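Q: What residues go here?
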């Protein structure tokens, strides 16, 4: 059997540890914390019910598309139109067009959370137990795993979010 002196083995372990630290530092993604910060900022806004702040974290072009879709739906569905008018405090449907796109996001977010209380539970009570991140240039995909204690036991949920960087700011995509 081959016998390696203890001092050589310890030196080898020390060299491997140093190389490992250097490699992890060299391949570290400096944008990783910015991306995670954008996600956790959005999650914090949702948990605190700060929908106006959450809307500012959404990619502006996506907000414009969301507004267009909501206006189209309001044009064809009287119940949806009335809900939008009540939430946005607009007395005439024709005035909906003047409402800022961020407010439409706030309305649709509040409506979604009211219609799907389970999503609200996960966002407000769920504990983030892990995140995964894949970035290519100014685009990133983040996966967050949530654990939620329910009467039946612990449940796990996954949220996948795509982000885009514009002018050094990471925006969440819809």
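A:
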């Amino acid at each position: 059997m081959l016998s390696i002196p203890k001092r050589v083995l310890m030196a080898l372990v020390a060299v491997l540890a140093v190389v490992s630290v250097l490699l992890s530092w060299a391949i570290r993604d400096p944008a990783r914390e910015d991306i995670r910060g954008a996600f956790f900022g959005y999650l914090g806004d949702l948990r605190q019910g700060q929908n106006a702040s959450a809307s500012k974290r959404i990619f502006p072009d996506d907000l414009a598309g969301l507004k267009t879709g909501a206006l189209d739906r309001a044009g064809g569905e009287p119940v949806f139109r009335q809900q939008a008018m009540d939430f946005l405090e607009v007395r005439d449907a024709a005035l909906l067009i003047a409402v800022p796109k961020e407010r439409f996001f706030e309305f649709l977010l509040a409506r979604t959370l009211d219609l799907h209380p389970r999503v609200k539970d996960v966002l407000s009570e769920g504990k983030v137990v892990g995140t995964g991140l894949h970035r290519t240039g100014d685009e990133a995909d983040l996966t967050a795993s949530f654990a939620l204690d329910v009467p039946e036991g612990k449940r796990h949920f996954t949220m996948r979010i795509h982000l885009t960087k514009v002018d050094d700011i990471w925006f969440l995509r819809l």
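A: Context that may help when evaluating the design: Residues 6-26 form the longest helix (21 residues). The mean pLDDT is 89.
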